[in-house]
Amino acid sequence: KEIQLHGLSILFNLVPLIPEHFHARDGHSILIQFLSSYTDYERKHSCLKVLLNTSEYDFFKKDFADRGIMELLLDIIQNTRENSLDLRELAFNIVSNICKDTRQNQ
Length: 106
Prior knowledge:
Number of domains: 1
Number of strands: 0
Helix content: over 70%
Number of helices: 7
Shape: globular
Distance between the termini: 35 Å
Largest sheet: none
Strand content: under 5%
């Protein structure tokens, strides 16, 4: 778990530096799978932070809808019992970024 958290922390800082490379390696799909696999706060929070960074780039936005991230994010937002306010806020911000200037995601 600690190694995963450390890796996500590195990705959080690395993605803004090399977004095209991360996209070409399908890193965003791996993050979506990771987010759907774990339910603990620490991993969810770290993964959502990396996804928030990726959601600012147009080439990620186009892929996100096809990969089913919206359903996953809406589940986080709606499930107030299992997800804290900061997790729901991160999910809202990702949804906002994905929809901004991308008509097909709205």
